[in-house]
């Protein structure tokens, strides 16, 4: 697992607007996230992953 470089690609592709940028982190709201995995596909460093795997 790599560390997020805060490129914001995941924010741009999220259809549910479940991802937002805070001061030093990107946060995924689990109540809004529909597990579409679009963010995982665009993350250049693999920082977003399914914690069940």
Layout of helices and strands:
Layout: H1 9-13, E1 19-21, E2 26-28, H2 38-42
Antiparallel strand pairs: 1-2
Can you give the mean pLDDT?
91
Give the CATH level 1 class. Alpha Beta
- Roughly how many Å apart are the termini? 12 Å
Q: Which runs of at least 5 residues are low in confidence (pLDDT < 50)? A: none
The helix/strand order is: HEEH
Structural class comes to: alpha+beta
By CATH, the architecture is named 2-Layer Sandwich
Radius of gyration using CA atoms only: 10 Å
**Tally of DSSP β-strands:** 2
Strand percentage: 5-15%
Tally the structural domains. Answer: 1
Strand order of the largest sheet: 1-2
Could you describe the largest sheet, including whether it forms a barrel? 2 strands, antiparallel
The third-level CATH topology is Alpha-Beta Plaits
Q: How many H/I helical runs?
A: 2
Give the CA-based shape: globular
């Amino acid at each position: 697992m790599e560390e997020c470089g805060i490129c914001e690609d995941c924010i741009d592709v999220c259809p549910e607007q479940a991802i937002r940028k805070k001061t030093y982190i990107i946060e995924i709201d689990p109540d809004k996230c529909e597990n579409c995995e679009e963010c995982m596909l665009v993350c250049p460093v693999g920082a977003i992953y399914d914690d069940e795997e």
